[in-house]
Structures are given as structure tokens and as C-alpha cells.
Amino acid sequence: MHRPEHGRASGPSRRALLRAGGAGAGLVVAGLVSWPRPLGAAGGSRIALTWFGQSCFLVESAEGVRILTDPPGRNAGYELPTGLRVDVVTISHEHPDHDNLGMVASPTRVRVLRGLTADRKGWTKIDVRLKDVAVRSIGVYHDDAGGAKYGLDTIFVFEVSGIRIAHLGDLGHLLDDRQLSAVGSVDVVLVPVGGATTIDARQATRVIDALRPRLCIIPMHYRTPTATATNLATVDEFLEGKSNVRRLGTRTLHLTAIKSRPAAEIVVMTTS
Predict the structure, then answer these.
(1) Percent of the chain scored above 70 by pLDDT?
(2) Is the predicted pLDDT of residue 25 greater than 70, yes or no?
(3) 132, 183, 178: which is closest to 154 by C-alpha?
(4) What is the 3-state secondary structure (H, E, C) of the chain?
(5) What is the greatest pairwise CA distance in the chain?
(6) Taking residues 125-143, what's their average pLDDT?
(7) What is the pTM of this model?
(8) Which domains are present in the chain?
(9) CA dist., res. 19 & res. 42, Å (int)
(10) Which has the closest alpha carbon to 83: 65, 70, 92, 71?
């Protein structure tokens, strides 16, 4: 089984921290290679990102492609839609709060991209395109012990209408140089911050500092008033001492590739 290196003993190197956060075409920055020029228009194409709780988002591209990430089970405590019409479902790992296909309409007709192999001992290699969307995967771990505690995890990188989004799943460790290089330059990072079985607020901050997203950071997988996972910390620990925070007040965020603020903002979404 191929096992990527993981950063359980130390944080990202200075070389990795110096990488640029922009989405340039074919750049090699500090030894790390970015993706080629984004798909679709680089300017005004608009996408929508809707949070359903835990690590579950609906991503809608400018051309109407709908992607659902890590759908949680009904016992997660969130009000979840039924019969949701989507084109693609991504599953970062096979835990019941991340792999509920019951949310979607006609699940047998939906393209399901599972990050792990059927035996859960390895990662599948995903690199697919659909209209103005590209999806690829990077194998990581659910813990800081090489998967010995909670198993494997998958980072999915979506390029949607020219915007690059990294969904970190249940990441459980800091990212090393190899993993940072594989993720590449991103605009938006969906990052777990609740700790317990994933990285905590402090580690999430270090991961964000290494990835340096261009547009925004969206925390996920933390305790909310309705969540049944009471062992998770709230988002407030992650927000403490940080500036450029926006509490959206809704569950849907609209994005374009045009940068409107000098620094990436932290966007806190709600599930209602």
C-alpha cells in the first residue's frame, strides 16, 4: 500500500511556508508545483457553496455541476435534505458521519468518488473532470499516528469554474512538504477545527498558514448547538485572536475568483 509521509512529529518546513498562495498558471514556487491555469473563466464565474453541517457541503459550479461532500448520517444532529439532486458525491473516508448516500436522489445513478479502497487500507487515485469541474485526491491520515488510531483520510481538491477548493476531510495531522505540494495552490480551504478525532484549533491554524488560501477559510467539523458530537470544540477556539472573520449568518456562500480583500477571510457559516 502506498503511504504518503505525514507530519506527526513536526510542522511544515520554512520552504513550505514560503510558498505563494496565488493561482498562477503553471508556477513553481519554493519547489512546489501549482496546477495549470484554472478551468473556465478566471474572472466573473460564480459558484455557490452550501454547508449542511459537519463536513458536508454542496458545491455548485457556474455550469450547473453539483457536488456533495461527506454527507453525514441522520444521527449527526443536523437538518438534512432528502432526495438532493447531485452529479457527484465525494467521500473522504468510510465513517457514518461522512458516507450517507441516503441524502441524495437516485444514489445508484450518482458518480460516487470514494477516497479509500474497499478494504479501507489504501487510497484510490482520483483525477476526473466534468464540464467546468475537476476533482483530484490526496491520501492523508485521520490521526497523527499514520492511521493507527482512526484510519485513513482523503483530501479532495476541486477546481470549480476557476476556483480551487481543498476539502480536508477528517485530517488528523499537520501536512508535510510532499502533501502540501500535492494540494498545490488553493483559493478556499474547508478545514476541520473541532479536535477530538481531527486536528484541533491550533493545528488547523498551522495547516492554514502552510496552505495559504487566496480567498477564504471555512471551518467545519466542530460542535454546534444541534450537533450530537459533543466531544468536539466549538468554532470559537479556532477564531480566537484572528482578524478578518465574517459570520455569514446563512448556510450558502457565493464565490467568484476575483479577490475582493487583501487577505483571505475566515467565513463562519450556519446550517439554517
Answers:
(1) 83
(2) no
(3) 183
(4) CCCCCCECCCCCCHHHHCCCCCCCCCCEECCEECCCCCCCCCCCCEEEEEEEECCEEEEECCCCCEEEECCCCHHHCCCCCCCECCCEEEECCCCCCCCCHHHECCHHHCEEEECECCCCCCECCCEEEECCEEEEEEEEECCCCCCCCCCEEEEEEEEECCEEEEECCCCCCECCHHHHHHHCCCCEEEEECCCCCCCCHHHHHHHHHHHCCCCEEEEECCCCCCCCCCCCCCCHHHHCCCCCEEECCCCEEEEECCCCCCCCEEEECCCC
(5) 47
(6) 96
(7) 0.82
(8) 46-268 (3.60.15.10)
(9) 21
(10) 71
Find residue 129's DSSP bridge partners: 134
**What are the distances in angstroms from CA 159 to CA 122, 133, 165, 228, 250?**
24, 6, 6, 32, 24
CA distances from 183 to 40, 71, 144, 222 (A): 20, 22, 19, 23
Tell me, what amino acid is at 175?
Answer: L
Q: In sequence order, what are the residues at sequence separation of 6 or more whose Cβ sits closer than 8 angstroms to the Cβ of residue 90?
A: 67, 68, 69, 70, 113, 115, 135, 156, 167
> Among 100-109, 110-119, 132-141, 190-199, which stretch is predicted with the lowest mean pLDDT?
100-109
Flag whether pLDDT at 164 surpasses 60: yes
Higher pLDDT, 21 or 234: 234
Q: In this structure, what C-alpha cell is assigned to residue 133?
A: 469541474
The pLDDT tens digits of the residues spanning 33-55 come to: 333 333 333 456 789 999 998 89
The answer to whether the beta carbons of residues 190 and 163 sit under 8 Å apart is no
Q: How far apart are CA 204 and CA 92, in angstroms?
A: 17
Q: Return all residues near 30 (Cβ < 8 A) that are at least 6 apart.
A: 15, 16, 18, 19, 20
